[in-house]
Amino acid sequence: MAIAHTADEYLQQLRGLLPIGPAWSLEMAPEIDRILAGVAIEFSRLDARAVDLQNEMDPSGVSELVPDWEAIMGLPDPCLGLNPAFEDRRLAVRRRLVEVGGQSRAYFIDVALSQGYPNATISEHRAPRMGRSRFGTARFGTWLAQFMWTLNTGGRQRQGRRFGASYWGERFGSNPGDALECQIRQKTPAHTMVLFNYD
Questions:
Q1: Which residues, given as ranges, of the chain have pLDDT below 70?
Q2: Is-cis flag, bond preceding 76, omega within 30?
Q3: pLDDT tens, residue by residue, 27-45
Q4: In b/e form, how buried is each residue of 151-187, taking b as 16+ CB within 10 angstroms?
Q5: Where are the alpha helices (DSSP H) in the chain?
Q6: Which domain of life is it from (predicted)?
């Protein structure tokens, strides 16, 4: 990560670049030093903005260029709603760049974790098969059960909507699961059916 030079550092550099002679002497012409100090402040500001631009090129540190990254990546995700929070948009940019997808339990638990559910688990349902099922038990199941699974959210969101952590217009004290359900359903294999269990 690059570090911007300060105005004092630029002032020292500019003083060192002055030609030799009485017209450029800081003692005989002190106004030159004031001009150099003003130029040094501007150079330092430009250097800081260049460092900011370098940091914005990596989505892990993006803040100002979120709309540009979204345009390139086909975001904002409709799962986030009409007015998603800025942090959710930034997280979506990061995920879209590094996410590789998958159909494993770990992948879907990771999606739930990114939505603020740190204790999420997955329960897979089993179809009745000879040798594994018992007659007379409740909820014996159907053959379609082999394509069903349940995402257990594990309780309240890690960063639930509450005073001091929510933005204006958001439902206070609620933990909406719409974004989680939408993202999970987008990524589930087409032949499966997912159920959600909010503890």
A1: 1, 128-144, 156-177
A2: yes
A3: 888 899 999 999 999 999 9
A4: bbbbebbeeebeeeebeeeeeeeebebebbbbbbeee
A5: 7-17, 31-56, 66-73, 86-98, 105-114, 178-187
A6: Bacteria
Q: Which of 132, 95, 135, 134 is nearest to 112 (CA)?
A: 95
Measured between alpha carbons, how far is 166 from 51 in angstroms, rounded to an integer? 31
Helix orientation angle between 7-17 and 31-56, rounded to the nearest 10 degrees: 130
Pairwise CA distance, residues 56 & 66, whole Å: 9
- Mean pLDDT score across all residues of the chain: 80
- The 3-state DSSP class for residue 39 equals helix
Instruction: Tell whether pTM > 0.85.
Output: no
Furthest CA-CA distance within the chain: 106
